[in-house]
Structures are given as structure tokens and as C-alpha cells.
Amino acid sequence: MESFENKYTRLFETAKDGILILNADNGRIEDVNPYLAKLLGYPKNRLLEKSIWDISSTQNIEYSKQLYKELKAKKYVRYEDLPLQASDGSLIDVEIVSNVYKVNKEKVIQCNIREISKRKDLEKITQETIKTKEALIKELQHRTINSFTVLISLIRLRGEMTNSDETKLILEDLEIKIRSITDLYSLISECNSPYEVNIKFYFNKLIERMSALSKTIVIHKNIEEISVSDKKAATLGMILVELLFNAIKYAFPDSKKGEINITVKSKNGLTFIVEDNGVGLKKDFDINLDKGLGFELVDIMVNQLNGKICFKSGKGTKIIMGFPS
Question: What is the pLDDT of residue 266?
């Protein structure tokens, strides 16, 4: 039967990862396997003349000594970014797992070393690809904003040319909806993440724009700091615009004074409430039957987000929407 020592020696000699055995007192290399000697380009006898920091990259020598002290104290340390310097001066990215143990009552340090140059190159390529895609997304966002701006200008020009109040109202509604999308793109382009939107910032911007539609209506806000996906934010923004437009145009006839409350909070999902103290809905109102005033579009968008909507009417109208997380 093969002895334990022979098994250890065979594993040490044939391992496809580097193995260093160090003196725990001074960091001198006491043994090195063939794989690591070949990786670093040194004959084994040359490596046995060195200490661990002699093969660390020049700029990491002091750091290597600090890590060595840490290893002696903790008995086990993993290093993921500590390149070694080969005989030709080139740096080799490696991952090092080191632990301290006793051999014949003497402490030694075993370092298992794995080359990760290909992994680092892949990570670099991945990061560069991500940066390129993010730059492309920002460019597309910028172009989209410009395209919508041109479209808004054309809608406004057409509105100035018509004498029909109904057409003006339709074009005004259309302009507001398009602006809600450009506001979203502008906000995304300013954020660190191109895929998440702060609902509070987005809604505040939309509400500020909608407030300009009436000088007699005050809009109150109670909106929590909530981040959602850009797609979800776009739909929520359209719902807000639609409900605010309806309330401003229809809840307060003859330019009566009024108030609208917007509440967005995160509890067991997302709760979104639009409430006004206007004339209210008719007593027999049914969202499934009454598809006017833009409620059909709101109902569709709420369903797109797997949400639920509830209407309450009395002294005004209260619309409560709930969405899953």
C-alpha cells in the first residue's frame, strides 16, 4: 500500500495549481511544486532562495508583508488580488489561499495558488462591454428625448392653429403624456442606474408640470422614496398623468377651487392613491361599464402591472391602486 508521504508527494508534484510551503517565522520558501516554478519561470532551486515577498509585485511588497502578519495571526487568509512577479518581470494574476499548520511541531504556511489571468481578462472585457452598452443606452435616451421634443413642438404648433376647443384639449392631453415619457428618460439619464427610477423624484416632476394646468387647484404630495424598474415607472407615470388630467379637467367645473392628494407608499407592495374633493363620480359608476374620462386606459395599465384598482366617491373621488412588489 502506498504510504501517506508518497501520496502527498505525488499530489504535490502533479497538482495543476501552484503550491508553496513557507517558513512561518520568516516567510522563506521551503518548498515549491513544479507547476508554480514553471508558471513563474524559475528553477526550483532559485525559488528556494527567496521569500514570499520576493516574488510579489514590486508595488505590493509592503502590502505582502502586512498580509503575512495577518496570516500568522488568523491562521487562514484568502487573497484574490495579489499578483506575483515572474522571472521576466511580468505580473501574473493569481488567487492565493493560505493556511498555517504544524509539521513535526514546527509551524509552516501552505499557499495554494491558482492563476486567474484569463478570468481577470474576461472580467475586464465584461466591464468594458457593460460600459459600452451603458454609453449606448444614454445615447439612445438622448436621441429619444430629442425626438419627443420635436414631436411636442409639432403638437403645440398644431394646437395653436386650430380653433376647436375639443381638439385643443386632445392635443394638450397628448402633449402632457409625451412629456411624462421625456421626463422619465431625462431622469434615467441622470441616475447611476439606467434600469431603476426613484418614484418620488419622477412623480414630483410630473406633478409640478401638471400643476400648471390650473391656478385654482392645489396638489398635495405624500410620496415615499421608492425605486422601481424603468418599465414600471413609465406605466405608473402614465397612470398619474391620466388621473391628474381627469381630476383637473372634470372634478372642478367652472374653475372651482379644489385640492388633489397624491399618496404613494410601500407596504406589502406599492399603494398609489389619487384623491380629490371635487364633484365626485356618479352614484352607479362602474369601472367595467363606464369607460370614459380615461378610466379605460388607467384600468388597462393597472392590469398590466398585475395591480388592483378601487374607486370611492362621495365628497370627491378617491382612487386606490395596489401593486405587488
Answer: 92
Q: Which of 20-29, 49-58, 103-112 has the lowest mean pLDDT?
A: 49-58
Computed over every residue of the chain, the mean pLDDT equals 83
What is the rounded CA–CA span in Å between residue 154 and residue 91? 60
Query: Mind spelling out the 3-state secondary structure of the chain?
Result: CCCHHHHHHHHHHHCCCEEEEEECCCCEEEEECHHHHHHHCCCHHHHCCCEHHHHECHHHHHHHHHHHHHHHHHCEEEECCCCEECCCCCEECEEEEEEEEEECCEEEEEEEEEECHHHHHHHHHHHHHHHHHHHHHHHHHHHHHHHHHHHHHHHHHHHHHCCCHHHHHHHHHHHHHHHHHHHHHHHHHHCCCCCEEEHHHHHHHHHHHHHCCCCCEEEEEEECCCEEEHHHHHHHHHHHHHHHHHHHHHHCHHHCCEEEEEEEEECCCEEEEEEECCCCCCCCCCCCCCCCCCHHHHHHHHHHCCCEEEEEEECEEEEEEEECC
